Amino acid sequence: MNNVQVQRGSKAVSVAVACDFTLALVKGAAGMFLGSLALMADSLHTAAQGVTLWKTGVEEGARSKGNRAGKRMQSYEVTMLLIPLVLITLALFMVYNRVGQLWSGSPEAPDSFTLIIVLAALLLNEAVFRYHAGRSKANSPLLQAHTRNHRTGIYSSLLVIAGAGLTLAGEYGEVPVLLYCDLAASLMVYALVIWRGLKLLREAIYKEDILVDALCEDHGMDYVETIQRVYGVITVEELKVQPLGSAQIQLEVKVSVNPLITVIEAHEIADRASRLLQQRFPQVTKIQMITAPYETGYPYKSNMDLNDNNLPTLPQ
């Protein structure tokens, strides 16, 4: 994927996240004003959708930025532990409150304008999703996350429509049992919120550091290119990346140098390479640099060595 596609996809994700959080506020306010318990629950689910999409965007941004994202990722990891806990706590509190209302007496039907609000939000979400899909590559992780979000968002909206519609039908048809449908729909939507919050919390706890993953998988060549810039380094024979902690890594490197230099000169080359790596990549906190003589005959054999054997002087 080229840079233009990445920028377009990132912009589309920003639009989708902003849309989710805006809709969450609108749904929450409308649910309170119109008396729809399911719509208020859907507002929390929409906020959870925005958090999920924002999380994926941050992780993909860390993968693309690599060495420039270390400090930000540390605060991000703490944030992604707190946000799911807040979502789960709010959902459980609202479930407790709704169960109390269930036993307190017959609930009231929401305003019919609730259905218009939900349908309008559903259409807006569909438009934003198609906008993102049209500006991103098919196998993009951001688009895949948005697809999953979009699917569960449809389920949540359908629950709200069914709950509010059946409750209104129960009020107009004088069927008392149907008056509980909006409340029941809200409980099911809160169950979706709790499920999403638990999923986010599990990923935050058990998933390896995002930045370390990115550096190990996608940015190994950056380290190799940096080492090869050092005067005296001929080739990088081995490079291993190991995580040390949050956004910190250790490098184990083996480089080849001129076989005719002294041990002290080889150590100086290794020190220069280590300093350059740590200057360019703040997350590299420990480096084990091993130097080995370059084994090819040309161009580092002396004239005396050339007279002693029949090895070719050109690389094979």
UniProtKB/TrEMBL annotation:
Regions crossing the membrane: 78-96, 112-131, 152-171, 177-198
Localization: Membrane
GO cellular component: membrane
Membrane topology, as annotated: Multi-pass membrane protein
Name of a matching Pfam family: ZT_dimer
GO molecular function terms attached to this record: monoatomic cation transmembrane transporter activity
Keywords on record: Membrane, Transmembrane, Transmembrane helix, Transport
Cation efflux protein transmembrane domain location: 85-206
Domain Cation efflux protein cytoplasmic: from-to ranges: 224-285
InterPro entries recorded: Cation_efflux_CTD, Cation_efflux_CTD_sf, Cation_efflux_TM, Cation_efflux_TMD_sf, CDF_Transporter
Family listed: Belongs to the cation diffusion facilitator (CDF) transporter (TC 2.A.4) family.
Name by which UniProt lists this protein: Cation diffusion facilitator family transporter
Organism ancestry: Bacteria, Bacillati, Bacillota, Bacilli, Bacillales
